[in-house]
Write a structure and sequence with these properties.
single chain, mainly beta, Porin, two-stranded antiparallel ribbon, about 5% helix
Length: about 210
């Protein structure tokens, strides 16, 4: 959670600084009060989950709200992340009982709604920004087609996130690339011989703003 603390401190410092009093930012689209963003890329599990999950992929859609005279914008994101378990990981539901099976056909899908504050730093055609916020994620592990007698597992959990990005002009359009750490507060569970705690993953997303 040190990383999340860093993002929060950075956000407060940026809002207090006169250097970001008025911002025009390509990541936030044009000067319109509302813009839209779409993107996708890789999702990288970190923490204890990196030992169980392969690198997956993500898709994201956003609505961005801009406020005249304020050095920030609000973002509402809908994101989808898809992972598969590592091939050499024996899987037994809940860590006890059940019939262990190969995990290579078991997938985990994470659908989330995020509310974020983004603070840009206008530095020209390529400019950085920071973002942080709260989220809710539905985590679904598909077991029914792989483990006989098992039901798919699904739960909705609270999360916090923070990240860094770059905005740029690309082929005459506003583009962005960002990496954002999501920390999902889940119930600990055991898969194989590994105890998995809070679910942490980093979507690395490239997209365009309209």
């Amino acid at each position: 959670m040190r990383g999340m603390t860093f993002f929060a401190v950075a956000a407060v410092s940026a809002m207090a600084s006169p250097a970001v009093a008025q911002v025009r930012m390509t990541e936030q689209g044009s000067g319109r009060p509302i813009s839209f963003a779409f993107g996708g890329g890789a999702s990288v599990p970190v923490g204890s989950y990196k030992d169980a999950l392969k690198t997956g992929w993500n898709g994201q859609g956003s609505i961005i709200f801009h406020f005249a005279g304020l050095p920030l914008s609000l973002r509402a994101d809908l994101s989808y992340n898809h992972f598969t378990f590592k091939n050499d990981l024996p899987f037994s539901s809940g860590g006890t009982g059940g019939t262990p099976t190969s995990a290579e056909d078991i997938t985990q899908q994470i659908l989330g709604g995020l509310a974020n504050v983004s603070i840009p730093f206008h530095m020209g055609p390529v400019s950085p920004y920071i973002t942080a916020g709260l989220a809710g994620f539905n985590i679904k592990t598909n077991l029914g087609d792989v483990v006989p007698g098992e039901q798919d597992e699904s739960a909705t959990k609270f999360a916090v996130n923070g990240g860094l990005g770059l905005s740029m002009k690309l082929f005459g359009a506003s583009a962005f690339v960002e990496a954002k750490l999501n920390n999902v507060y889940t119930d600990g569970k055991v898969i194989g011989s590994k105890e998995l705690k809070d679910l942490q993953f980093v979507p690395v997303t490239f997209g365009f703003v309209f």
